[in-house]
Amino acid sequence: MRAFTSGLLSLAALLALASAPARAGEPRTLRVDGVERGYWLHAPASAKPGAPLVIVLHGAGGGGEQAARAYRWDRKAEAEGFVVAAPDASPSFAGRPASFATNPRVWNDGSGRGSPNIRASDDVGLVAALIESLARSHRIDPARVYVTGFSSGAGMAQRVGQELAPRVAAIAPVAGIMVAAPRAPARAMPVFYLSGDRDPLNPVEGGVISLPWGGRYPKEPLAVVVGRWRALNGCPDAAARDDSGGVDTLAWRGCRDGVEVRYSLVRGLGHEWPGGARSGLPESMVGPHSAALDATAEIWRFFARWRLP
Question: Does the predicted TM-score (pTM) go above 0.85?
């Protein structure tokens, strides 16, 4: 318990540091089905009308600003000239301040997990509303909207990739589950899935994991998660393989509508954003950090290849 408490304090320090004014960015709100939802907007001067939009979904217990900064999407947006929107998930308990330790924000990824407040949260509607709002206010290119997320946010990114397929050009989930909808997406979805081979909360071979807030949850093998996207996208069995640079990558090309499903497993990485800031949580809880892969750079390289018809 002492190590866990120390980890929470370290994360709090990280979040405080992340909120220091260092780059362009501001908190904003919008209403979704009568509920006010918050998000962090990073729209650099280099993002001209017609710029792409990247929506970043934080992990459980995090927040939009924390994710945009800790995963270094703010820096990438400055360098490449796109807009970043990082919304906040709903807290587990309504009417109380969000808190990593006692009231974490968690996404409604379609799995039925979480509190009644999470299960009732219209998070697909939130992403759709963000796209609409920023198309009006910042004239983003509606054909170049991308969604990425970590952990709980990865599960949400995969739900968005199915339910908002006509409005999202590609997705990149990092270390999260995938719940398949009853029907295939309206269009094939380019997918780049990443995780670490030493992740105790998203184990490669699956198994029952212990959650930081208590309780246990069964996780499927990562091959099953990636296999669902291969099936939904009608991908061939054969994959191109690349095992260089401390990362094992499989890429299924020639899928339906010409899309690709890519799977990268980072060696020596636990439940952390690859190449991002350390979470500050104990290694005994989340496993090791690794800089073998700059996930933000690789994901952006993948995103930049795709646009809606």
Answer: yes
